[in-house]
Amino acid sequence: MALLDFEKPILELEGKIAELRHVNSDSEVNIAEEITRMQSKADRLLSQTYSKLTAAQKVQVARHQERPHFLDYINGMIEDFTPLAGDRNFAEDHALIGGLGRFRDQSCIIMGHEKGHDTQSRLKHNFGMARPEGYRKAQRLMKMAQQFQLPIITLVDTAGAYPGVGAEERGQSEAIAKSIETCLCTKTPIISVVIGEGGSGGAIAIAVADRVLMLEHSIYSVISPEGCASILWRSGDFAKDAATALKLTAQDLYELKLIDGIIEEPVGGAHRKKEETIESVASHIEKALKELTPWDGEKLVKSRRQKFLQAGRDL
User: Fold this and answer.
1) 25 with 96, same domain?
2) Which residues of the chain, if any, have pLDDT below 70?
3) Is residue 74 helix, strand or coil?
């Protein structure tokens, strides 16, 4: 498991437990009691550590390379997933994946950012940073959802939209703006979950939803802490201060009424128990979908627009 600096004492203790478990069972020394004692201590330390994470530490957890990603959720909670490729304009974007599937016996459109798990897949998916064609594909899928009266599920996990020259030449900002507009105009339910990192317009482009949920240790912000620090203090050394000031944690955003709910993660973060996390996310999506069903398209659009206008007024 990848090492987070604040987890070092926990991982060292878990390493010792693992070593003891591999001791020859024929050993005359009874180590079962010692293993139980150490495991209890590790569990207690893990719980204490994760109950008081700072904003900067939550950023690390949200970015953990072993957290479940979009394709993990597809495999864990969507049946008969059929990916739909291309924006019908320029190309396919592997950073933002979407398509048709069945969620607990309900046909739906599902889309989200995929970061990849290893070097090869991360390069293929561009580390989850979508280009304009990705957001134009998202628009196409949302319009398809409206045409066939299907609910939309979006899973957000991106550091932000890709800032490359080619992306800007092909209209990155316009694509994001049109994607937000399409979210606001789509006459079917939209449920969005921030499963890791929700960065800037790249995230909100598919997260203007009737229900916006966040995993307990995920983050959602207009800019990364490092980017904020480089602008305000001209140095990335102040990223921890920026993380606190940005109010980017799920708890901060729920208090500000910018999201609708927080999904608890297993003790120690989603990366420790992927299946349990995916099941919890699926249960919350199902609950939200039931609250919005049956739906009236016109009322949905009116309510969704009012929700985000009111959020701006409250702030």
Assistant:
1) no
2) 1-3, 23-30, 315
3) helix
Are residues 234 and 124 located together in one domain of the fold? yes
Task: Report the DSSP pairing between strands 190-199 and 211-215.
Answer: parallel
The pLDDT of residue 48:
84
Same domain, 26 and 133: no
Note the pLDDT of residue 28: 52
Backbone φ and ψ for 76, nearest 5 degrees, come out as -90, -20
pLDDT for 315 equals 66
CATH number at residue 263: 3.90.226.10
Beta strands 96-103 and 106-113 are antiparallel
pLDDT recorded at residue 23 = 66
Q: What is the pLDDT of residue 312?
A: 81
Listing DSSP states for 248-310 in one string gives: -BHHHHHHTTSSSEEEPPPTT-TTT-HHHHHHHHHHHHHHHHHHH-S--HHHHHHHHHHHHHH
> Are residues 171 and 301 both part of a single domain?
yes
Closest CA to 110 of 76, 133, 67: 76
Q: Which domain holds residue 17?
A: 5-52
Do residues 252 and 126 both lie within one domain? yes
What's the total number of domains in the chain?
2
Stated length of the chain: 315
List 103's β-bridge partners, or say none. Answer: 106
